[in-house]
Amino acid sequence: MELTTRSGFEYYRYDPSLAAAVIFIICFLLTTALHTFQLIRTKTLFFIPSLVGGYFEWIGYCARAVSSNQSPNWTLGPYIVQSLLPLVAPALFAASIYMELGRLIVVLHAEKHSLIRVKWLTKIFVTGDVLSFLLQAGGAGLMASHSQSSATNGSHIITGGLVIQILFFGFFIISTAIFHHRMDSSPTPYSLSSGIDWRRLIWVLYSVSVLILVRSIYRLIEYIQGFSGYLISHEAYLYVFDALLMFVVMLLFHVVHPSELNAWLKSGGLVSKGFRFERLQGATGNLAETA
């Protein structure tokens, strides 16, 4: 079924760029393939949501490339896929980020420094993340319906989901900063003796959190402006403030892979160092290079 408009509602306010879509198809394919390899080798299971998010980004931009070849007679299927999957992918990245902080606190024996008890920390943030995910997914589904009113309602629901995501992410960054300050002021004995470079892990969490927060604020402004707004009418902003930022998030997790934390939790295991793997041997954290 081919539709350019639905009761006056256009799928796109421009002709989607094939070149831009292909660039990010390649980028997300490469980084997601490497993350798949790293996850399988290191068995860092709590990173699965982020991996799924990478596939969502890749598939979403594949669908966008399909749409670019259909201008101006865009079909519904590719439009739904490119609207939905890149929209909700950051919520999946967020789930892994929340779980990583909880595990870092456990590894450092530092629950006393956490603003929220560890048993509740991951549950609270992931619950907010799931709620945000469901609202954004449901709103995107409504936007693909065949009426202007449903599309408008869908946009409002997505806006609510993004507000929840921003609030929880803001609180998460504050919680991380408080934990960081308390650890600097009064480090746990284990953090001093184990050799864990926990500050490096913290700074990666800050970095990816800020990137996702900026992206969510961009998306929020986009949906607040509405279907005739400036941001939704100019494709370049989507690639600069969404696609590029999420690609950088995935790159940062290549540089400081969560497998290091996973290995500390298990008192041993493979740690990914890009294309190399090192084995963490025992609770003392000695690293030995392996194939």
UniProtKB/TrEMBL annotation:
Q: Which Pfam families match?
A: RTA1 (PF04479)
Domain of life, per UniProt, equals: Eukaryota
One GO cellular component term, please give it: membrane
Q: Which InterPro entries match?
A: RTA1
Give the bilayer topology. Answer: Multi-pass membrane protein
Which positions, given as ranges, span the membrane? 18-37, 44-67, 79-99, 120-144, 156-180, 201-221, 236-256
User: Keywords on this record?
Assistant: Membrane, Transmembrane, Transmembrane helix
Q: Where in the cell is it found?
A: Membrane
This chain belongs to which protein, by name? RTA1-domain-containing protein
